[in-house]
Every structure is written in C-alpha cells, then in structure tokens.
C-alpha cells in the first residue's frame, strides 16, 4: 500500500501545483486587465490627451487661418512700432503747426 500512498501523494502534488499555476495565471491576467482598464480610463481625459488648440482644417488638410491671418494681413511687432512712431510724429507736427496761427 506504500505505492498507493505515494501515487496519491504525487497526484495530489501535481493537481495542487496545477491549481496553483492556474490561480497565479488567473491572478496575473486579472491584474493586467485591471491595469489596462485603469490606463484606459486615465487616457480618456481630454484635457490630458490634447491641448486646447483650435487647429481647424479645411477639407484638403490645410489649417484654417483665423483672426488677422484670415485675410492675409499680419501685423508684426516692428510694423506696430513704426505705425506708433508715425502717429506720434504726425501728432507733434499737428500741434506745432496749430500753435503758429
């Protein structure tokens, strides 16, 4: 009967090891699914996924210009300074000629 006990003991160890392996596999699978779902939920936040840029596109894929750039008129910093200086010069000339009358 020793061989019978040995057979039952060995079979029990094999079955127990298989159950442990399947349990570990299921636990790993469950942890992976939970982590995947957590990543999916965190990546669904639109504030983190895309910047708030209004880069609209035309049907051909080119960006749509909005504001001053829509009509092709762009004002650079240098142009604004030059316009300000021209207005100041005109103002000074107006005041200077107005006082001579």
From TrEMBL:
Entry's transmembrane regions: 79-97
Keyword Transmembrane among record annotations: yes
Stretches for region Disordered: 38-69
Keywords: Membrane, Transmembrane, Transmembrane helix
Polar residues composition bias: residue spans: 42-60
Protein name per Swiss-Prot or TrEMBL: CsbD family protein
Species this protein is from: Vibrio agarivorans
